[in-house]
Structure formats: C-alpha cells, structure tokens
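As the next step, I selected for study a record pairing a protein sequence with its backbone structure tokens, which the following lines show:
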Amino acid sequence: MEFAIILLISYLGISAAYYLLFSVGSLYSHPNEGQSSLIGQNKIAILIPAYKEDGVIVDSAIRALEQVYAPSLYTIYVIADSLQKKTLQLLKELPIEVVEVSFEKSTKAKALNVTMNQLDASYQIAVVLDADNVMEVNFLQKVNEAYNAGFLAIQGHRIAKNQENNLSVLDAISEEVNNNIFRKGHRALGFSSALIGSGMAFDLKLFQKEMSEIDAIGGFDKELELRLLKKGIKIGYLEEAVVYDEKVSKEEAFTNQRTRWIAAQIRYGLGSFGNALVHLITRFNLDYFDKSLQFLLPPRLILLGVSTVLALVFTFFEWIHWEWVLSIWGAFILALAIAVPRQFYNRQTASALLHLPKTFWLMIKALAGFKKAKTNFLHTPHQTVKP
C-alpha cells in the first residue's frame, strides 16, 4: 500500500514539476523567434477542413480573404465534407477553391491528404485552419517571415473568440495556459512548440510527405508532432500571429472534445515513449522525448482535482508523506498562477472558477469514455461567433 502511494505521489510530483518549469519559462521570450532579413513572399495554400460546419464556414472563408498579403500569393481551399447544398453554393460564389470530399469515416487527415494531392508545385507553405478559425489580418505575413527565417513547422497563437458562459471562459483560460506552458515556455527553454491542430503552418513538401503516412481518426497533429521531432525538425511559435478560435460552451461538446484529446494523448504517449527514450539515450533527442513524456502527463484539470483532494485528505489526517502531497499541490497552483495571463484576473474568471468542480466531473467522464474515440471521430460543432 505504501509503495502504491509513493508511486502515485511521484507521478503527481513529476507532473507538477514539469508544468512549473515551463510555466516559469513562459515569463521569458525566445529571442529572434520568426524574424528574418529576407523579404520575399512565398505562395501559401490555406487548408480548411469543414465537416458539417455549415454554421461557420462561409463566414470563416470570407474573413480569410482579408489578409494583408498579396492576393495572388495565397489561395483558400475549403475542404467540404457533408456540407449542405446551400452552403456549397455560397462558398462557390467566393474567390476560393472548394474541394468536395466524402468518406465512410471522415477524418481531418483524410481531408487534408485528398486536397494536398491536388495542389500544384507553385506553393511553398501550407496553413491549416479549423472551420471556425479567424486569422488576424497579418497572420500570413508573420508566417511568411518565420518560414524565411528557416522554420519548416510553425504554430500560431490561437486565442478564444468567445467567452459567453462559465465553460467557455474556462476553456479560454485553458487555451492560454497551454500557449504559455507548451509553446512560449518551451521555446524560451530551447524546446519545440507544441502543435494544436489549427492555426499552424508548414513547408508544403514536408507536410505532404508526413501527412501521406498519417491516417489518424483523431489527433493527427499529435502524430505529426512526433514525426517531426523524431527527425529533429524544430517547431516554432509565433505569439504575435493570432488566430481566433471558438471555445466550447456546451457540456456535451466539451466532453466529446476532451474525450478525443485524451484518447490521442494516451495512444501516442504509450506508443512512443520507448522509442523516444532510445532516441534520448542514443541521439540526445530531447525534443522527441519531451513530447512523449508530455503526452503521459495527466490533463491539468485532472491533476488539479486529484491533487486538491489528496492534499486536503492527507493533510487533515496527517497521512504518510502529507508534506510532499501539499508541496505538489502548491507547486501546481503556482504553475497555474504564472501561466494564466493577467487579463483573466477578473470577476468573470472568479465566477467561472465556481464551475470548476462540474468541469472536473466532465473531464472524468471524458477520461472514462476515451476508448470510443479510437474508432469514431467525435465532431465538435461550432456556431458563428465574431471576435
């Protein structure tokens, strides 16, 4: 029994220390990220998979046309999967390309691969967006500069475009904590940024090659990360290249989304750790090992709930190693306090925090049902929300 407790405390301690390390790292900027003396503009293909996204895709496509980038040097490809005829008609009236696809089981990886096979050799960069994403007008310009600086894989700064209820506020905070810990903090300490599935850009030839071998039902970005890092390709993070992303505001959508994420995290964490450890020892590939280790950490909300309960129980009854449990809880709270941007320290956040216990329960449900995401794509519906 004591061994099991020590094992649990050790796992929670490693997790809290990891989050705290990169949270502190986020206080520092990575020098010269994405800066280049080259001024040439590269041709960009913007790929937007849209599965049953009739409520948002037309508005997103229109907003994507507002970039302060030479119109002749970027093309928007909406990958239309199961869209209504009226939506398709509206899209075809825009100066964009509409690629209609249909699959027995739809996935983003399949949609992207079909479309990339149709691109000609004139494009140098591929940008991937979700159907609800809205780029700030200088996004492509920032991506182009980073590409000219030598980055073959780039993650933009995805932030919330809606905060209409407690759940969406918590989701918005979670997004920014992710940005600070897994992107800004990692880059500041010399590691690669994490990808997040949208608002990201790649050298097109590299992206085509790697994606041609990926057929993930969910979490294609996780597999892509591992492939890139295994090959020693550094992933950059552009904090100033902003993409607005709709946050979930309904409990069912939240649970489905987190179920999909947890399933991908467990799958790729367990599947890659042994190989990543070998690469760490034989090639000193810290990036690859760090990513695999990251996948094996508990989701932050799970860690917060479990460590809080354990800290209360162990301290109250003065069980063995209660001081360690309390220290782990304190370290994790400090990590979160540092990673949450100052603009979220307000009354709206205080109100949303009261919703945390229920959100923790939703995460438990997501964790319990992660196996169903292995064989089915769990779609997260969106609605039109302007940033």
